[in-house]
Amino acid sequence: xxxxTNTKTKKLTPSVLTSxxxxxxxxxxxxxxAQGRARSQAAHTDQPNGEVIIEAxxxxxxxxIGTQMVLVLKGVTFSVTRGDFMVLFGASGCGKSTLLxxxxxxxxxxxxxxxxxxxxxxxxxxxxxxxxxRKYHIGMVYQQSNWVKSLTALENVAFPLMLLGKxxxxxxxxxxxxxxxxxxxSWAHYHPMELSGGQQQRVAVARAIITxxxxxxxxxxxxxxxxxxxxxxxxxxxxxxxxxxxxxxxxHDLEYIRYSKTALNMRDGKIDGIYRDQDKSALEAKLTYKxxxxxxxxxxxxxxxx
Length: 306
Description:
The protein is an alpha/beta fold. 31% of the residues lie in helices and 25% in strands. It has a single domain (22-301), classed as Rossmann fold. It has a seven-stranded mixed β-sheet, with helices on both faces. It has a five-stranded antiparallel β-sheet with strand order 1-3-2-5-6.
């Protein structure tokens, strides 16, 4: 459906950015250099073949903090194709959470575009329209899930379908089948608070995918889990991806890069590298994350000068 927004952002005026990312006004990202544009174009054209679901085009984000303007995102360009499993990683404060909010339509960029299925996520669209769009096209899983505590796991999973006006029996039947995918059907009639953290996250994934969204977005889904529960969840996410589900996952745990088809490294509000699996050696190289050795990965673009 066509989406519209009345969201307005501050008009940008020229000035000079400081070395630490502060500015009185962000001229450097209002008019990026030709060199910067070329890097952004290179990052885009290096994407693999396939239908593009989400595309970030030269995205900047600045926040007013006191009398200063802090530049959090600095010209981010990349795209996610159907069937990808993208892991977005980087140190705390690198801008990945801000980028995720922008991708989800929760926070408008200061400059740049987010294209979803060929449509500009923000142009002429308000928050209610974007929320409606998410309901149909994006499934979301967070580090800490919110539950209707009076409902069972089965009913919680069925709830998004009910909100779409589906018949209750149909919703419950599909919820049960979705729980089976996540190997949680035996706990269907338990209440979420009776489940372990790992079990709750598997139910959360089932709830996120029951509407068959174009993309599943997971924000630190293993953040509150122990090692074993985290690995179990990742195995199931990998299975979903093998079934064709497009996944974007944000994490600070570099071990999970090995599950990705595309790994996007962020640093200081920029894309520091985009890495793809081409063969088994690339996957094994990802396991050497403690040494920060990415030599076995196929680095296709950096977005920055070396």
